[in-house]
Amino acid sequence: MLLTPLLPQRWMAAAGAVALLAPLLAYHVRRAFAPMNALFRALAGSVASYRDGDFGFGLAWRGRGALAELVDAHNRLGDALREQRLALVQRELLLDTMVQNTPVAMVLVDPSRRIVLGNIAARKLLGEGHKLEGRDFDALVESAPDAVREAFDRGGDGMFTVGDADHEDIYHLARRQFRLNGRRHELILLRVLTAELRRQEVQTWKKVIRVISHELNNSLAPIASLAHSGSELLRRGQVEKLPTALATIEDRARHLEGFIRDYARFAKLPAPRREPVEWSRFVAQLREQVEFRNEGATDGIARVDLVQLEQSVINLLKNAHESGSPPGDVALAIRRLPDAWRLDILDRGTGMNEAVLSNALLPFYSTKRNGTGLGLALAREIAEAHGGRIALLNREGGGLCVSMVLPD
């Protein structure tokens, strides 16, 4: 009977002891788990740093077991990410160095027509050496020389000339569109071809000398041989064979005469004799000689050399027919500009690759087996003699546009 009152007292004593020992126990538990908690916080912090692109630190853990393996794996991951980041930075630095120092002017334009990137060559060409990033590209083109603005207005790839006769630079324009970060951007490349074309021009003239020498030899050698044979026939009294020999001599002489005349016409193009020409009359005369579709209005009068311009445009229209274009897609478009006339000869043929575009206007350059290489070069000479210019560019959807601008 005496044990019953003692039970509550024992329970109270035990509860008091637990109450006294609990803080101490909690303190030791927290102290025992503190390193692991710190490790977990460090792991969380390092993951957040990796997400932000910071890989410049590692973790240390003196313990063993699964946590040690976790820390080692985490550190190896950090090392790999750090090495990849360093390699990426080096590649970006190399790429930026190449982009900035290339002689090709490069401009990257975003969908709002703002310049995202412009290298050093682009700054010199379009921005007078000033930074281009953030500027409105269309406004920049509007303030550029007329030839640059017209090249961009035509769209697509093409060539244009900046400067005067004493100092001119020839450029090739290339435009490419692509998606960057889900948005459509445009990359514009402007490459100076002046020095390259000058070197090619020297090589072309060497080729011309070889071609002329070859043609002269091909004609003069048989003429000399036949003349000798004719004299021998005459000496022997075999005059019945003389007409054949003389006819062959005449044929070769006339061929040589025509060959020299064609080249002389290009080399000695006379100054244009300007006269008022109605475009409607000009188009009507062209239709009598070559098939084409007319686009745009033919009203108006221009002051041009009718013979020279007609010869040039006929050659261009014939080239368009020989490009593989359907005859119905060969067109001539005449448009009025503020202070000039613009003639576009259009086709839907195979167009030209970059190498041909770069050389097509050079004298004697031809991709045809029997071509003289004078058609486009003569058209350029005629346009420039009128104070104008000519440009070639591939059309969207295939084909070529030869654009000739003739000032008033």
UniProtKB/TrEMBL annotation:
UniProtKB keywords: ATP-binding, Kinase, Nucleotide-binding, Transferase, Two-component regulatory system
Annotated coiled-coil segments of the chain: none
Catalyzed reaction equations: ATP + protein L-histidine = ADP + protein N-phospho-L-histidine
One matching Pfam family: HATPase_c
Superkingdom of this protein's organism: Bacteria
UniProt keyword Transferase, yes or no: yes
Top EC class for this record: transferase
rRNA-binding is among the record's keywords: no
Domain Histidine kinase: 211-408
SUPFAM superfamilies assigned: ATPase domain of HSP90 chaperone/DNA topoisomerase II/histidine kinase (SSF55874), Homodimeric domain of signal transducing histidine kinase (SSF47384), PYP-like sensor domain (PAS domain) (SSF55785)
GO MF entry, a single one: ATP binding
Organism: Novilysobacter selenitireducens
Name recorded for this polypeptide: histidine kinase
EC number: 2.7.13.3
